[in-house]
Amino acid sequence: MRVIILGAGFGGLELSTRLSEEFGADADVVLIDKGEGFVFGFSKLDVMFGRTTAEAVHHSYADVVKPGVDFVQAEITAIDPVAKRVETTAGSYEGDILVVALGADLHPDLTPGLVEGGHEFYTVPGAFATADVLAAFEGGRVVVGVCSTPFKCPPAPSETALLVHDFLTERGIRDVSSVDLVMPLPVPIPPSPAASEALLTAFAERGIGWHPGTLIRGLDPERKVAEFADGTEMPYDLFLGVPAHRAPAVVEASGLTDDGWIPVDSLTLETRFPDVYAVGDVTSVGTPKAGVFAEGQASVVADAIIARATGGEAAHYDGTGICYLEFGHDEVAKVEVTFVQGQAPHGTMDDASQANAADKVEFGRTRIARWFGRDWTTV
Q: What is the pTM of this model?
């Protein structure tokens, strides 16, 4: 039974690892990704704010050496969900089961003026380049802005605003600077009232401007202002933007999507095409677009594939995931939220602490150990 996995992020890495652990050399898995390696989302912020280097957080796919898993570095040019066949720059691949885990593509060009007048920090290259921009910044008006919804990792814009505050403070230029966070959402993290309340308190304590329910229409690079949908404006010296997200074009062209994303059964992650699954950011399953949810969904798909081969029972996705939320001062909060179709999200939050910061380090270390077979610390 050949399994073709498209994308080697949280979902693809977890699924291929689970199948290799279960079947060993008999796991006939092809894992395809166009990238050279994997970078945790939180590692982008570590590099951006000078905590570590780009080289230290890059995990090469060349190190994915697992029994029964063939990694192919190639760009996917076409997907046929009926035949479960994909065309790539390295040739054609056809399987018995197809799993789409290609995430969301980011499009700063869809926000007028963002490319010319701002800096997106959500792609790996964008975040790494922003490290140099921040290092050269001499103070002024900093605006962190979310340019579209949905977007990956809902806590990241808030984390960025808090870390900008720390960064400017450490450099002695906070008193000649302002920090504002602009989001189209009503609260920083809608699924977690406790986390949102804690963030709003932190913003107030640090003098960070909070602008909810505000949609950024574009930037005017010449006047250095962010233009909002309601006709108002905000001046800036440094604009850090979260760009528009879209499903990859090759996925949209495949016929898998509906309203821009792949609809799936929220319990099994099955698409409307037999033996075709989708996990993670590319879906409209209803959970946040965050790696830990892709990992949990991939585990459910692994259970289904293993059950098919062994005659066991498949599991259902429970919609639960955790995220770590940087509050600055080397303290991290831990939020656990459950999303179940037809119910309001519910969850808990552990307050920011150094203990949770250590837990975040362990989260990264254990996954790199499983997925890449080596030890690693996040910084």
A: 0.94
Q: What is 2-104+247-317's CATH number?
A: 3.50.50.60
At residue 279, what are phi and psi to the nearest 5 degrees? -135, 155
Token pair for 159? 């984390």
Token pair in block for residue 33: 């990704």
Which residue is it, tokens 């949770």?
A: 356
For every residue of 281-328, DSSP letters joined together read GGB-SSS-S-HHHHHHHHHHHHHHHHHHHHS-PPP----EEEEEEEEE
46: amino acid identity, one letter: D
What 16-21 contacts at long range (C-beta under 8 Å, 24+ apart), as own/partner pairs, is 16/64, 16/66, 16/69, 17/66, 17/370, 17/371, 18/298, 18/299, 18/302, 18/306, 19/68, 19/69, 19/302, 19/305, 19/306, 20/66, 20/67, 20/68, 20/69
Q: Rounded to an integer, what distance in angstroms lies between the CA atom of residue 371 and that of residue 373? A: 6
Question: In this predicted model, what pLDDT tens digit does every residue of 69-113 receive, in sequence order?
Answer: 999 999 999 999 999 999 999 999 999 999 999 999 999 999 999
CATH number of 108-245: 3.50.50.60
In one letter, which amino acid is 143?
V
- Please say whether the beta carbons of 119 and 130 come within 8 A: yes
Condensed to tens digits (0 to 9), the pLDDT of residues 271-325 reads 999 999 999 999 998 888 899 999 999 999 999 999 999 988 888 999 999 999 9
Which residues make up the CATH 3.50.50.60 domain(s) of the chain? 2-104+247-317, 108-245
Report d(CA 227, CA 22) in Å as an integer.
53
SS3 243: coil
H or E, element range at 218: strand 216-220
